[in-house]
Structures are given as C-alpha cells and as structure tokens.
Specification:
The protein is α/β, with parallel strands linked by helices. It is built from 9 helices and 22 strands. Helix 1 links the parallel strand 1 and strand 2. The longest helix has 20 residues. About 45% of the residues are buried.
C-alpha cells in the first residue's frame, strides 16, 4: 500500500519540508513507491521573495524539478483549492483530487491589502515575482515620460523590513532608469510612531542614519487614506504627488489556512505544537508563514521570514514523514535569531538576538547580506546524498 505525504507550496518551507521528508524516508528504509512525497504548487520554482526589492530578477526563481527528481519527490503542477481534513483529500485546480496520509501546509503568506480607496487599483508591490516584474516594467516605462517631480517621486507605504529595503534601493533604481543626474524623491510613510516598528530600537539609529544619508524622507505616525494614479493622500501630511506608490504594509497567512479547523493568530497563522502539528487537526502539519510556532521556551514565535521558514520546513517535513513511518519526531526549536537588513548603497545592518543588538553595519554588513542573498538562501546543490544531508533539522539556519 502506498502512503502519501502531501506538501502544499514550493517556497522555502515547502521545498525544505519535501527534502526533509525524503531524508526521513531514506532513514526508514522506505522508497518513493511505498511512500510518495508530493509537492503541489503551480510550478516547481523557488521564488526568492527576500530579494524582490532588487532590480535584477532573472535569478530570483531557481527551478526545483531537477532537485526533486534526484531525491524522489513528485511535483504536481496545480493550485490547491479545497482542503478536506475529514476525508484527507485535496481538491486541485486541475479538477483532480489528491488524497494524503499526512499533510504539510506550506502555502506561505499574502500581502495585507486593507480596504483603502484606490489601493488595489493604483499601488505597486514586491510581494511576488510577478509583482516585482510589473513594478520594474513600470519604472522602465516612466523613463519615456517627460521629467517631472511627480514622475521622479516614489512613495513607499510601510516602514518595516520590506519597506526599508525597497526605499533604500529605490534611488539607485530610479537613476538607472532616468539617468545619474535625475533629481529623485523617495518617501517612506509609516503608520507606527517609529521607523522599523517590528525591528525595535536596537538597529533604529543605524537605519535612520542610512536613510538620511541616502536622502530618503521618513514620515512616521502617517496613515494612508487614499491613492490614485498620480499620488497618495496621507493623514497629517496631505497629498504627495507620485507616479509610483509601493505598498509594503505587512502580510497575512495564505487563505488556505482558514480551511483547517483550528485556532489562528491575528495574522491568520495556525497554532501548532512544538512538533508543528496543527492543534485539533489530525495528520496536518503547518510550517513557514502559515504556522504560529514557538521558537524557544522564552515566549518568542517565528517571524514571517526566510530564516524561520527554512528551519520550520525542515522540522515539519521531518516530523510528517517520521510520524507516518514510525520514527521519532523532532520538536522544532530555533532559539538563535538574527536580522540582516539591506540599506542600499549605504550598506546594511546585522543584528543578533531578539533584542536585535547591532553587530555589523555599513560595508561589512553588506558583504554578509550579499552572501545571504546570493548563496545561503538558495536551493542546495550536489548529488542526492549531499542534498538530503542539508535537510537535517539539526543544521542551524543563519540566513
């Protein structure tokens, strides 16, 4: 009898869940014929979402099919439309139905889009690779328009991680399109009372210094009230004329999480045990951006980040396969927490710990960020044994 582990999503968490499950299958002496591992996603690609604020997008979606083939993972090209946890079946966009013995939900997150007039019609974003490409095409097309202050202004709505990185990179992006002498204006508007509200006070002086030296305007305590094709209106600031508004205001768990009968946090993430099993949902594991998972015993929970998704994916895939094949489960634990924030031409800032103590800044931190962005977060390379070795949940994640 063939068993099946179904993994929804081929992002960081989904890819690593598949590789970790394949590793456990080998440990159990099972085979792909006896225990199928199926990854369901529209295409066998890993989108490098942490880099979508950059200009060059050609290497931001490495293919996974060759890796899956080497380790005996099946890819199903479809979207999951319905999850039936009672029958343990998935209804796919291809009209097929796929049954499972264990399910790993790794469907990621979606950009938070509140009901602000004009937001859906007029804002750009860098949430998915199609969105990033559309923004780059838009900036390229603006170069053919007459130079005006409005054309040369970009407003970034949201001063969190993505918003800061997008704004810090934007001046260079505009000059690459409009010419090195172009007078550009980059503005961040953040609803909270400080830039980088989720990053805390530790790196804030570095961030503020970098943005100031890059010429980025920062307005905090500023709430967006409406957008149109030629600008944005912000409470307390009034109107800012800009042909480009980039929306970066937070993320929510993929709506598929709502189909799992369990409790969720304010971001829509499913509450999970330390083994990453969904509370109250038999045979279902959640990982990555859809999991509200404790990282340690000190009350910290995983962030919606590549750093946590990699380790969460390894743990979820390991435990789903171990549960099915009768091997010991491994509780998820990720007490070490770091951040490395790109600050454009100024450099970067690297912090350690949940208090985000600054350890590196400027050019030195930029070198580390470059290594993370171009190497550490990409799919593993090598033969079958080398790939599976990288999926061990015991391996620390430093990205």
């Amino acid at each position: 009898m063939t068993h099946r582990i179904a993994i929804i999503g081929s992002g960081f968490a989904g890819m690593w869940a598949a590789l970790a499950a394949a590793r456990v299958r080998d440990m159990a002496g099972s085979t792909p014929e006896a225990c199928e591992i199926a990854v369901i996603s529209p295409s066998p690609l890993l989108v490098i979402r942490p880099r979508l604020y950059e200009t060059a997008l050609d290497e931001m979606s490495p293919e996974l099919q060759s890796i899956f083939d080497r380790v005996g993972v099946r890819h199903v090209a479809a979207r999951v439309e319905r999850i039936d946890t009672a029958r343990r079946t998935l209804a796919l966009s291809s009209s097929a139905t796929l049954s499972y013995d264990r399910l790993v939900l790794a469907s990621g997150s979606v950009l938070n889009m509140p009901a602000i007039p004009g937001l859906a019609e007029h804002a750009w974003n860098v949430d998915q690779i199609e969105d990033a490409r559309a923004l780059e095409a838009h900036l390229h097309a603006l170069a053919d328009e007459p130079e005006t202050a409005e054309r040369n202004t970009v407003v970034v709505a949201g001063g969190g991680f993505t918003g800061i990185e997008t704004a810090a990179e934007m001046a260079g992006r505009l000059r690459s399109h409009f010419g090195p002498a172009a007078e550009t204006r980059i503005v961040i508007v953040e609803r909270a009372g400080a830039i980088g509200p989720d990053l805390g006070p530790g790196p804030r002086p570095v961030i503020e210094l970098a943005l100031r030296e890059l010429g980025v305007e920062v307005h905090v305590g500023a709430e967006v009230t409406s957008l149109d094709a030629r600008g944005i209106t912000v409470a307390g600031l009034g109107r800012i004329d800009a042909r480009t508004v980039v929306w970066t205001c937070g993320a929510r768990a993929n709506p598929l999480a709502e189909q799992i009968p369990s409790t969720r946090d304010r971001y829509g993430r499913l509450h999970v045990t330390r083994d990453l099993r969904v509370e109250g949902a038999a045979a279902v594991y959640a990982t990555g951006d859809v999991a509200c998972a404790a990282t340690d015993d000190a009350g910290h929970h995983a962030m919606m980040s590549c750093q946590h998704a990699i380790a969460l994916g390894r743990a979820a895939g390991h435990n789903a396969a171990a549960d099915l094949l009768g091997l010991p489960l491994r509780p998820y634990s990720q007490p070490k927490y770091v951040t490395c924030l790109d600050l454009g031409a100024w450099g970067a800032v690297y912090t350690e710990g949940w208090e985000r103590d600054v350890k590196l800044q400027g050019a030195e931190a930029k070198q580390l960020k470059h290594m993370i962005n171009t190497s550490l977060i990409y799919p593993p390379r090598g033969d079958r044994a080398a790939i599976l070795a990288t999926a061990d949940p015991a391996i620390p994640v430093v990205a």
